[in-house]
Please model this.
Amino acid sequence: MVRLRRSAALLVGALIPLSMLTGQPAGAVSADPMTDAFARAASTYDVPRDLLVSLAYSETHLDGHRGQPSASGGYGVMHLVSNPVTHTLERAATLTKQPVSALKADDAANITGGAAVLRAYADELGLDGAARKDAGKWYQAVAKYGHASSADVARLYADTVYDQLSQGIRATTPAGETLTATPRTVQPDRGDYAKAQELGKTNTLAASVDYPSAAWAPAHSTNYAVSNRPTSDAIDRIVIHVAQGTYAGTIDWFQTGPRPNPTSAHYVVRSSDGAITQTVREKDRAFHAGDYNRRSVGIEHEGWVDQASWFTDTMYRSSAALVRNIADRYGIPKDRTHILGHSEVPGADHTDPGPNWNWTKYMQYVTGTGGGTNPNTPESVCGSGFTVIDSAALGTAGTVYLTYNTSTGVNCVATIKQTNLGTATATSAYLEVEGQTRITDSGNFSYYAGPVRASAADKCVRWGGKAGTSTYDSPLEHCG
Model:
């Protein structure tokens, strides 16, 4: 009964026309309109101001995209969503008495609407006035705001917002306004979300992923076609996409179904740290590139085509390491004929990855060309006759490779650095044949660790290595 009374009180108090929230004399123009809008909305709905800014930045980098929707139907700086599953846009209209058209395109209205919806979720959770002063107590309301279809993705969404809150914000809006939020150390009250899987970290279910550094969050069964590639269809293309949305939102969209336009990709890459989640097995056909679905692996990247700030160097490096791994396993040439953008797929009506995607830098990372690259390859380190059969990215610091010589039955492992080239830093590579002692090459190396070789015909192996702060340890695999 208490919760119902709180919700009723909110509905009465939240029906406040935007004209009463401006705090500006008639005709006045603010020098910092978005900063003022966040302050007013936070005060009106008793939401921690920096948490509200962090949520908005995590969703859109403070760009309302001129009223155009995201791929999942979200509008404005606060990403108010209107689609067959989620209706935060319509709820914001009810709470603020603002027309949907204003909530879509006007930054101040949109921010007010987002604050109203977030406060409504807090009331439904029973947060009283004292609890609302503690940003950590809002965690479950933030998780609900992300409208995820699973607890795992809801945690990913909320963790992203709270990570941003701890880092602070200094960003420039499309209008040129500088907006800041002071870094804040907050203890999130995750509640039941503490039990959810952390999708931002590598999954321990190695059997579920084709790329060892990826987490696993399977798409809804209606959003892809079970297949047997490359036996059924050769894989000879890799298609680069930009999601028109966030990392968590894209994963959630792939997990939502059935719907009229089923959509998925094999992988999703995060902007801030290059984290990768696999959502469809490579053997299966993701629905991402029309006629190229049968022959390609699709990689979505968090962000918007018209907003270069999402395309970080860390994202480029992480995605390029994934592309190298896929290309090596399927024998795909590392060129722009075989690694292409969605807009370049025959018959495509999409524009991604768009003009802000730096193809020159990206392909240098994919091919290892250009300045400051490692002149060594796993084949040159291991020697003649060895070919790559598996690899794992070590963050952005390097890649560890497993190679095999079919004529001798010998495996070889080498860790190839990608950063601090020419400077001796801690790097290692190891190979362990089933039933035998592990062989390790570990030390401070300028370009690579290894080669570590062992005869492994008809036997399983464990392999891995370290570069920088990242480590990879394989399961017992590649038997025979």
